[in-house]
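Quick check before the chapter quiz. The format below is the same one you will see on the exam, so make sure you can read both the input and the output lines.
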Amino acid sequence: MVTGASSGIGEAFARELAKRGFSVILVARRVDRLNALKAEIAPGSADILVADLATEEGISVVGRRLALGGISLFVNNAGLGYRGKVLDESEANIAQLVRVNLEAPMRLSRAALGPMVAAGTGTLINVVSMGAFQPVPYLNVYAATKAGLLSFTEALADEIEGTGVRVQALCPGNIPTGFQDVAGTKGSRFDRGPSMNAEDVARSSLDAALRGGRTLHLPGALDRLSLFAQRLLPRFVARRVAGSLIRPD
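Here is the expected output.
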């Protein structure tokens, strides 16, 4: 099962899983895109589940399906962000970010892991972000939710150690997807930097997760170099560098 499967990294995961012979459940809000993707990648081995993870109903629908079991690999990918100052952001947008980026992945991780642990096998991939490693002015709430998801996922990996279930926190950098259009970062200094494509991110993540790699997975060499540099810098410097890349012109 892949959430946020109608575009970007989620779509890339769905395509890659289908190539590897998995039957895939595609989860997203947009039924037209899900139907088109199903028809294209695996008409006989793909199902769709329409759900909006910004709503209680959407989270519950997906959670109930996961709790039924039979899901050997779950990719918690759905997410979004908004660029701007927190004081200019609406309460509704802040609540939506927290629900989609943090509450939904936490609850769905729990729902997926119950049957996996009982079966003694399974893989959970939570799509986090390089933004989880330092505060990011102008993507403040987004980065905070991703920091929370990273902490949750790493702690979860220790809690289920020895059960036969693998857990991965996937932390990609700036990947060209529809995220930039929604977040308003397209054309920013951050968006002009080199990046991987979504297909390479999904392939790298699955290769690492399925061979039992480390919990924390940074798919690109530039991501690993960036994290190394961040750990050498004082935190106030790291956050100012991050803010300078995102700040509206």
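If your answer matched, good. Residues 180-186 have pLDDT under 50 and may be disordered.
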